[in-house]
Each structure stands twice: as structure tokens, then as C-alpha cells.
Amino acid sequence: MNFSVAMCVYEGDNPLFFDKAIESILDNTLIPDEIILIVDGPISKKHEQIIDKYFKELTVYRFKENQGHGVARRKSLELCNNELVALMDADDICLKDRFEKQINVFKNNSKLSIVGGQIEEFIDDVENIIGKREVPLSDDNIKTYMKKRCPMNQVTVMFKKKDIIKAGNYLDWYSNEDYYLWIRMALNNLKFQNIDDTLVYVRVGKEAYQRRGGKKYFLSEFRLQNYMLKKGIISVPRWIINVAERFVLQIVMPNKLRGIIFQKLARR
Question: Is 208 among the domain residues?
Fold first, then answer.
């Protein structure tokens, strides 16, 4: 089965990590037929050198100004020529059999629209794993979990392009463009699956968990909870619980304590 990889890079991405990310795609047991790279605004000479290094493998589209993740991912998907598309971030590392495992799942179940998996988070080196984000596996459990938290690890997903387009494609929603898309896919009765294996090593900074808060972050989550309530995804009691938990975690709680909570309770 042919498939594409959609990837975005912007000036804030570390060029060395960007290089390693592309290398991990090309070092897989199944190699994509194309890699669509969105350059989201101006980037450095070092970034350009990495793009030149892999110019034969990349199809590059450039935005003159930074557009943000939602817009960049939307464009990347529009440019993909294959029906199956895998996402990849510019600083993460694919496991060598990631794509093969996902393709096999699609071969075994043609009704699926999206297949994701687990992630392990590391600092500096993949040997220094500091957490694992586990998500539910079956369609029913994913849609139940969706009422409380984002049920897919975005950097691991492979999906059918036509089904993502059916749900409206990626749209801009601060820090939650993925969660917003999964909700709209569920509203379209599309089928989800996660596999129990780690598919991607995700690079995080030492203060990554601490930064997942603040007024802007909370307001984005608050709007998303309102959307789920309006669309009947969640009930009023569930809305109250979700908003209260996010208010405490993202507004009331000090950054350092938030980091501890994320690492101890939201990760394994």
C-alpha cells in the first residue's frame, strides 16, 4: 500500500533534531512514496541545509509567514497524493517498524479511518525515557476516553485522507487542532484504532510538562469543552468536571507542581 508522510518545520525547530526526524522516516522497514514538507515561515540556513541534504526525498511547500500548526498541517494533507497519510513532527523519532505496523492494521480492517499508537517521551537521548503516554486501543474506548482527554497521540497517526477531508481537515485551534479534528471525525462516525506498541519517541524539554498551562492554553481547552457540550459529545456534569480540572491544572497550579502532576499522573 502506498502512503505519504506529512511533516512541518518552522524556525523554532532545532535543525539537528529535524535531521534526525527525517532520517528516522527513511530508516523505516517501509519507506513512504513521498514526504510532503511544509516550511511554515522563514527558517535558518541550517534548516535549509537539511532540506538540501534530503532534496530528492522531499516535496517542499513554503509559507512566507508562519501560519501555525493547524494551517500548516491542513496544507500538507492537501498536497499528499496518496490516500494513506502518516504525520511526523520535526523533532521526533519514528521506530523502525512504525509504518509497517500501521499499514498492516489498515490491511486487516478496511473500515478504519485512523490508526495511532503509543509514545515514549525522552530528554536529549532516546535512552533517557522520562514518560510514556498510553492511549486506549479500540474505537469504543477511544470515543469514551475522548470525553475526558485527547484520545490519540497525534505524532503517531496514519489516516485516510478522504476521511480527514470529510471531517473538515485540520483547522486552526490553539494547541488543540488535533483534538478538535478527532472530535469532528467521531461526529462523522469514523472509525479509530490505536495499537499497543510505541510508534514514536517524542523529544521533550526539561520543562515541557510545566508549560502546559496559562490563560491562553486554558481558554483553548475551555472553548473545546463548550464545543463538545454543544455537539452532544459530553453532558453538563462531564463539562463541569472537565473545565474544573483544567482550570485548576492550567490556571491555579504553579508551573513546577503542574510538571510533577503531568509526569506522575498523566504519564507512566
Answer: no
